[in-house]
Prior knowledge:
Blueprint: E1 2-7, H1 10-14, H2 19-27, E2 32-33, H3 34-41, H4 45-57, E3 61-69, E4 72-79, E5 81-86, H5 108-132, H6 150-171
Helix pairs in contact: 2-4, 3-4
Amino acid sequence: MAPVGVIREAPKAGALLKPLRREILAHARTPVSAAGIAAVMKRPRQVINYHVRELARAGFLKRAGRVRKRGLYEQRYVVSAQAFVLAPEMLGALDATAPQATADKAGAAYMLMLATRLQRELSESWRRSSASSTPLPLLALDTEFGFSSAADRARFAQALSTAITAVVAEHTTPADRCTEGRYRMVLGCYPIPE
């Protein structure tokens, strides 16, 4: 099972629009037959079987062997990835990957555009590296923290900005002289929804 499946085609994304299909995928974290899913969901087997076939055709489910039940063989399926993300480029000209389009660099719209650009660029780099079996040189940081006051938050932002600017200046090469490819760093701090 892949960790993440990136959905790049509209018809494939359309296969997930039905809540029933997302529920079927949730029940297929381990190999299971359409009949097994139908029993757990208390739905007609024929209905679940139809949707299982459609999900398999779209690549969301993959075959996971057969099991013999009452003289017949049932095909088992398992979800093809632990999670799925929609590629921003599916929206064409409407995708939110142009952060320079907003002047408010401290606003939520700007951060969402940066996150969307990160997702687009990273999913494309990941697709290319998977095709060539070359691992991506990545660094990811994720942490949670809090502040006692707005003044503490402002001092933190200034100190972090100063530190990152110094590290980038000390350890990187200007883009026009780099030989190991260009990198983008996106750092965002935002309040976690309760």
